[in-house]
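Side project, low priority. Logging it here so it doesn't get lost.
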Amino acid sequence: MSSIKNLIYFLLCLSFSIIIGAAFYEHLVIWPRAFSLPPQSLYMFQGEFGLNSAIFWQAIHPITLLLFIVVLLLMWKSERRKNVLIALTGYAIILIVTFIYFVPELMSLINTKYELTVNQDLVNRGSTWEMLSIIRLFFLIILAFILYSGLTKDAQRNH
């Protein structure tokens, strides 16, 4: 049973790592380009062939939450419970903030009507969104270290 618990914990860590990797990718490749000359640069998200990363995010978050719940149940009486609870609580707070601020603001930005003239308000909003998103990513990395450190603890019951 311990090897199954370890495997599921590992899958949770992998899923959490995928989230962090995708966020890094977006911050290195997509957001600097998207917010470079808005609204013209935001056109990359529009039209029939526009970039739609929402498909990825809408799949990975439920998978990760499900893994968190399963791992929490499996580790409830182990030394790992504290690590899982802290990471899950932090992740839930991040998701709530994401749905309250980040997603609506991003949708507002990327759905801006195409124009050739740079809109300074959009530049400022995009810059603020990106800076706050990097801070969010920083907190995800801290939570990941807390979660991963649980792998060093016993998966069996506390003695």
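Brief comment: Residues 2-152 form one domain.
Revisit when time allows.
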